[in-house]
Amino acid sequence: MQTETITLRKDDDNVVTLVLDDPSGSANVMNDAFRRSLREATDWLVEHKDEIVGVLLTSAKKTFFAGGDLTRLREVTSDTADEFFTGAEAMKSDLRRIETLGVPVVAVLAGSALGGGLEIALAAHRRIATEGAGVFGFPEVTLGLLPGGGGVTRTVRMLGLADALTKVLGEGKQFRPEQAREVGIIDDVVPDQDAAIQAARTWIAEHPDAVQPWDVKGFRIPGGTPAGGPIKDFIPAFTASLTKQLKGAPYDAPYAILAAAVEGSQVDFDTASRIESRYLTQLAAGQTSKNMIQAFFFDLQAIKKGSSRPSGPAPRQARKVGVLGAGMMGAGIAYSLAKAGVDVVLKDVDDAAAEKGKDYSKGLLDKAIARGRSTQEKADALLARITPTGDPAALAGCDTVIEAVFEDPALKQKVFGEIVDHVAPDAVLCTNTSTLPITELAKGVQRPADFIGLHFFSPVDKMQLVEIIVGAETSDETLAAAYDLVLQIGKTPIVVQDSRGFFTSRVIGTFTNEGLAMLAEGVNPTSLERAARQAGYPVGTLQISDELNLELMQRIRKATEDALRAEGQPVPESPAGTVIDTMIEQGRPGRKAGKGFYDYDQAGKRGDLWPGLTKLFPVAEQQIPLDDIKERFLFVEALESVRCLEEGVLTSVGDANIGSIFGIGYPAWTGGVLQFINGYNGGLSGFVRRAGELQKSYGDRFAVPKLLQDKVARGERFEDGV
Ligand code: NAI
């Protein structure tokens, strides 16, 4: 029997194999054709149930099933919510009919099953994966959604509330087959597909009466269910991590998952399943999931496909990369390259300094081994790829160079001079400068067309973003090679044109300045830090300034002011600058010195806000509303990003969104700086109205750039490629 996306085949032994195989694309997704096919296939199974002894769920695609149809999900509105709910329920009722057919059902997973894909597999009585199957899990929470295809209801019944929430549902973790088996969402892992099918047939033969545990009379959820009393007493780990992670930030998905799991644990399966669908519908119709789907699915996917890469040059793989400077950044860059299988020559002033940089990788690997995340064998192979040296000639044959010496233009130009004759004649020359204009630096390097900025973030091994900065003379080939390298090492590139502060440093500068300006205005420093957290920022502006170091911020400001004067441009007043100068005068430049806006102990651990702060910057009697504090942060960064787009520093909306979330901690629920404007209450005109209010109350930083006004007039949004 053949439906649009599912083939049913009954074998001589009366086992029916369902092959999921959507002919319209490379992956199976939960589109209309699948829903229709599932209905037809289920009807057929029910009709023939007396003639069959078991069902195998398999896939003809590389991934078992790709999951929900996100294009469709992001179009759900409050007007179409009922229709969405009904559709979700219909599909779930078909899975339920298969689950309760009265014959054993086994899912054979030879490819990844995430989200909706895993939910299909959970309706089976047994899940057998192959060793190379890929990953399993529920990433829904990272898109502002919940697993509403039975994922919450079934995992709670399989694992118990606490484990389902903390291990599987709450953080969107993805598990390799063996880990998935340990967690309990996969039953068996076998070498390959043939072995899996064989194991499935054997299991069917041995379990003719298989039923789900929750369909057995007297079933109780493992670990029991909360009988009144506060939830935090029952599932402390999840609620504690929620409170810690979110700090009141407006992410609704984790709370909805918690509510659906707990409420669903008190009632029968079918009622629980309906509760779960209701919460999913609410989330899907809300703005946060649309923002997160935009950034974490569509924008990210576009970047991975090369949205900001020139299409002409052929793809290029780096094989041997020279890293100049084995300090904090150089050592981290070397590790990331070696981890991706690239050979690295790590050069510093002498062998000993370079060796020290290599030791950094060793330290990271020792930790990974101790946590069971790596093996000695893998660690040795990685370390063998890093050659430390003090000799420029050791860079012979390098196809790429990444410079990360001190932030001094003359030194940077000197170290490039030392190696340029040794490396391959077409080697790409990258600098990891965080502040120096690329075009200027390129003038001192012999091959400006091959020269480009590659701005990594600290700590390099954890931070996913790399900001690529294109100088005036950088060639398309160089940009393409840099883009390919960033993808090759598993990181995410954004591309910006050369300008002061590039994109990320410039925009985060407006965030810290806004916070420090509010302190000068008399906003209570405790409220200031709390408001940033509540808006969804990982850290407040006082904490981040302490981390960055106020002396560095002062140096950057002075350099910027000098440059503006040299260009004959006005130098704006800086209330933040006055705060920084005052703190430095007080001998409190930040965390490294053990004293900044916060106090620190001997080990550098952050304590409370410095009590002297409110003497220097008295708290005003009349405090501004908390919402204004939050929105001043969110708006000042969004508006600066629009200016970057207007000036051509940014050329892609997706790059702005992803760069802001991954690089500088702009809250993920917004979908990034420009998606925040798209999704603001009332859309772009709502945003412009509110910016007008902020401008009136707090200054011209909140003036709306012409590009945004024009978009409002034309009824457009911030979008790429449409
Ligand atoms: P660092 O001070 O930790 O390391 C600099 C290294 O360069 C030192 O090991 C030094 O011995 C080495 N060096 C100096 N002269 C050299 C020469 N002639 N040949 C080879 N090596 C030489 O500095 P860090 O923090 O690693 O910064 C390096 C660069 O990365 C700077 O341009 C900085 O602005 C930039 N950057 C820093 C970030 C951060 O968070 N620290 C973030 C992004 C960029």
From TrEMBL:
InterPro entries the UniProt entry points to: 3-OHacyl-CoA_DH_NAD-bd, 3HC_DH_C, 6-PGluconate_DH-like_C_sf, ClpP/crotonase-like_dom_sf, Enoyl-CoA_hydra/iso, FA_oxidation_alpha_subunit, NAD(P)-bd_dom_sf
Family under the similarity heading: Belongs to the 3-hydroxyacyl-CoA dehydrogenase family.
Entry keyword annotation includes Oxidoreductase: yes
Domain 3-hydroxyacyl-CoA dehydrogenase NAD binding: start-end pairs: 320-498
Keywords: Fatty acid metabolism, Lipid degradation, Lipid metabolism, Lyase, Multifunctional enzyme, NAD, Oxidoreductase
Record-given protein name: 3-hydroxyacyl-CoA dehydrogenase
Stretches assigned to the 3-hydroxyacyl-CoA dehydrogenase C-terminal domain: 501-600
Higher taxonomy: Bacteria, Bacillati, Actinomycetota, Actinomycetes, Micrococcales
GO molecular function, one term: enoyl-CoA hydratase activity
Gene source species: Flexivirga aerilata
Pathway recorded for this protein: Lipid metabolism; fatty acid beta-oxidation; Lipid metabolism; butanoate metabolism
Keyword field contains rRNA-binding: no
Catalytic reaction annotation: a (3S)-3-hydroxyacyl-CoA + NAD(+) = a 3-oxoacyl-CoA + NADH + H(+)
GO annotation (BP), single: fatty acid beta-oxidation
Pfam (any one): 3HCDH_N
